[in-house]
Amino acid sequence: MVSKMQLHAVGEACPGYTYAGSEDFESLEEGKEPVSCENCIHWVRGRCTIDMFDKVLSSLDQT
Questions:
Q1: What total of structural domains would you count in the chain?
Q2: Cα(24)–Cα(48) distance, rounded to whole angstroms?
Q3: Cα dihedral 3→6→7→9 (10° resolution)
Q4: Averaged pLDDT for residues 21-50
């Protein structure tokens, strides 16, 4: 099972991350939705459709 912390860390480090919400992501105020795989356009039904999750997670574990 993937934790919320992992989803956040991978989202922050993923070169393929693309926010799935409004186009005004840059102006989100503190306390709003953080970067996470869960709000990426490539995260569908609990999986990364561009197969980056495991690759990015492994690279984080090595640092």
A1: 1
A2: 23
A3: 160
A4: 80
Give 8-49 as a 3 state SS string.
HHHHHHCCCCCECCCCCHHHCCCCCCCCCHHHECCEECCEEC
Q: Specify the pTM.
A: 0.80
Label residues 47-60 b or e (16+ Cβ within 10 Å = b): ebeeebbeebbeee
Dump pLDDT digits (tens) for 8-27: 999 999 999 999 987 655 55
Q: Which domain holds residue 47?
A: 4-61
Ramachandran quadrant class, 51 (left: phi over 0; alpha: psi -120 to 50; beta: rest)? left
Dihedral sign, Cα of residue 24, residue 26, residue 29, residue 33:
positive
